[in-house]
Amino acid sequence: MSHVLVLLVAFCVGTCLGFAPDNRIVGGKKVKIEEHPYQLTFQQSGRHLCGASIISRKWAVTAGHCVGGRASTYRVGAGSRHRYNGTFHNVSEIVRHPEYDFAAIDYDIALIKIDDEFSYGSAVRPIQLPERDLQGGEVVNITGWGAVQQGGASTNDLMATSVPTVDRLVCSKAYKSVRPITDRMICAGQLKVGGKDSCQGDSGGPLSANNTLYGIVSWGYGCAQPKFPGVYSNVAYLRPWITSVTGV
C-alpha cells in the first residue's frame, strides 16, 4: 500500500505514525506469472518501485503515490515471476489522477503508457476492468514483490495471497482516527486475526478476482495487522476516468 513512501515526509508518516502506502505480500506463497499474467513490476532507474497491472497493449495502471518523476526514468517488466527478468518496456507517459490527494491518499491512481506494445501470450495478458463494486466478504487476490513481513526486505519472486473484502462502514470505523475511507477506497483483509496483507513494495499492484481488477494496493496501518485491513483504490469508481484517458 502506500508502502512505497514517495517523499521523506511520507516516510515519516509511515514509520513514525504507522500508516502510509504499503508494498509487500504478507502470508502469501510463490506463484507463477501465468497465474497472474497482468502483473507488472514498475521500476525507476532500474529498481523495483511498485506493482502495476496491464489493461491494454499500451496502458497499465498503478497507484498515484508510486509516480512523481519524469516518465523517461521509469520502465515496466512483464512476463516473469522474477522482478528483474521478463521483458522490459520503457514508459512514454504517466498520467496521475488530477484529484490525487497526497495527504488523504485519495484518488490514488495513475496510468502508465509504454513506448511500444505488450506482446500477449500465456505470461502476458491484460486484466479486465470491473463493472460493479465489490461487496463485503468477497474473496479477492493480492499479488506483488513486496516485503513478506512488516519491516522486512522485499522478495524477488512474485507472491500471492487471498483475503476477504471488508465492508466500508466497518473499515471506516477501524480507521476513524487515521483518515477517512472515501468512495474511492475499498478495504480487504482478515480483520480479526490479520496475517495476510499487501505491504511495502506491493503498492500499485492488483487486488483482483476472476481476472478483474477491483483494487490497487494503496495504504494501510502496518502490514497484516489485526483490526486494520488493507486499503485499496476502488477501480470501479475510478473506471470512467481510466476510460477517458486510455479508451479502455
UniProtKB/TrEMBL annotation:
Entry keyword set: Disulfide bond, Hydrolase, Protease, Serine protease, Signal, Zymogen
Cross-referenced PROSITE patterns: TRYPSIN_DOM, TRYPSIN_HIS, TRYPSIN_SER
Molecular function in Gene Ontology: serine-type endopeptidase activity
Signal sequence, renumbered to the chain: 1-18
Any GO BP: proteolysis
Peptidase S1 domain: residues covered: 25-247
Name of one Pfam family that matches: Trypsin
UniProt-listed InterPro entries: Peptidase_S1_PA, Peptidase_S1_PA_chymotrypsin, Peptidase_S1A, Trypsin_dom, TRYPSIN_HIS, TRYPSIN_SER
Residue stretches in coiled coil: none
Stated family: Belongs to the peptidase S1 family.
Name of the protein: Peptidase S1 domain-containing protein
Biological source species: Trichomalopsis sarcophagae
